[in-house]
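$ ./design --mode recover --in tokens.txt
reading tokens...
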């Protein structure tokens, strides 16, 4: 989808259609400033999607875009092409939902995506984030093909090859180079496999272990349980900070309070309103690795985790057995936690 080797010629060039080249008047636009500002970037996107007003340069961009797509950016300067790639890479990696909207508007049939996939891949721009995961999940045949690819039983599709090639590094770096779409997609597939095809998940797990995968943690769960991070619904992609003044020391120093929280979380006793909300949101916090937690919430969680492991290991083991029965939240961050002085 050369959509942006063009589309954001838009921002890189804001091309004013002049033969034989688009004007270079806007080649000095500060792309870094736009990339760093969601507000600025969103204004351009809204203009292109006809959801908001356009600046003069945004209006020119929108007018020229169809021609740029049709002519393979043949009228673009090198600066414009390079700038558009930078913007495109940023959107795919960091704002996949905006990218998808633009794709739906300017490449409904997927013709540009098919035409330029290989060329863009050479530039380090991968267009596999838009794979229809729901279609794969609904089809055992498709899903099994991916599993067979990963374990070396069958040939891989192009996106399967890409996944297989990047898997060892992703495991070693806790997916630090993954886009948000890739992280969300992997969680969706893993959840489906564990719930519906555990034998396939085990095969993949064995392959991962041979590639020195680190076992996942229950830390996220404890961050959530005692950090107050799961009370209420996420707001603007963060858990509410309403309970950031939660007195963790009071709970840890009181067997009665600690037992009440444990009984709620283990379904052995009644829950207070906030504890019930906490328990409801634990699965999400586990899956997203506490990404929606504030720094204060993380510190509270680490404190609780250290306490349970060092002084109440039997309680930690209970929580682990309930919230991580298959050990999938036990192998990923062990080394990271050890570096923080927390030994599982």
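writing sequence...
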């Amino acid at each position: 989808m050369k959509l942006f080797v063009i589309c954001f010629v838009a921002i890189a060039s804001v091309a004013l259609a002049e033969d034989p080249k688009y004007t270079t008047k806007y080649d000095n636009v500060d792309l870094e400033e736009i990339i760093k500002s969601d507000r600025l970037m969103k204004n351009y996107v809204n203009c292109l999607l006809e959801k908001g007003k356009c600046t003069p340069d945004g209006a020119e961009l929108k007018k020229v875009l169809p021609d740029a797509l049709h002519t393979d950016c043949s009228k673009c300067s090198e600066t414009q092409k390079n700038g558009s790639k930078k913007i495109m890479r940023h959107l795919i990696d960091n704002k996949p939902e905006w990218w998808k909207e633009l794709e739906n508007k300017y490449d409904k049939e997927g013709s540009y995506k098919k035409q330029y996939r290989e060329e863009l891949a050479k530039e380090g721009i991968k267009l596999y984030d838009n794979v229809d995961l729901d279609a794969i999940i609904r089809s055992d045949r498709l899903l099994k093909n991916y599993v067979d690819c990963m374990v070396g039983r069958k040939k891989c599709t192009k996106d399967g090859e890409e996944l297989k090639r990047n898997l060892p590094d992703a495991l070693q770096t806790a997916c630090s180079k993954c886009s948000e779409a890739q992280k969300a997609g992997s969680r969706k597939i893993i959840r489906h496999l564990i719930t519906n095809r555990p034998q396939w998940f085990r095969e993949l797990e064995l392959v991962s272990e041979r590639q020195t995968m680190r076992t996942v943690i229950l830390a996220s769960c404890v961050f959530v349980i005692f950090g107050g991070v799961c009370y209420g619904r996420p707001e603007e992609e963060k858990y509410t900070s309403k309970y950031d003044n939660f007195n963790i020391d009071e709970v840890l120093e009181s067997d009665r309070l600690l037992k009440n929280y444990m009984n709620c979380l283990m379904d052995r006793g009644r829950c207070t309103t906030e504890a019930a909300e906490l328990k409801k949101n634990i699965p999400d916090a586990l899956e997203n690795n506490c990404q929606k937690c504030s720094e204060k919430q993380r510190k509270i969680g680490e404190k609780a985790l250290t306490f349970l492991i060092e002084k109440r290991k039997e309680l930690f083991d209970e929580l682990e057995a309930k919230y991580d029965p298959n050990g999938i939240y036990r192998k990923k961050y062990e080394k990271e936690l050890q570096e923080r002085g927390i030994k599982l």
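exit 0
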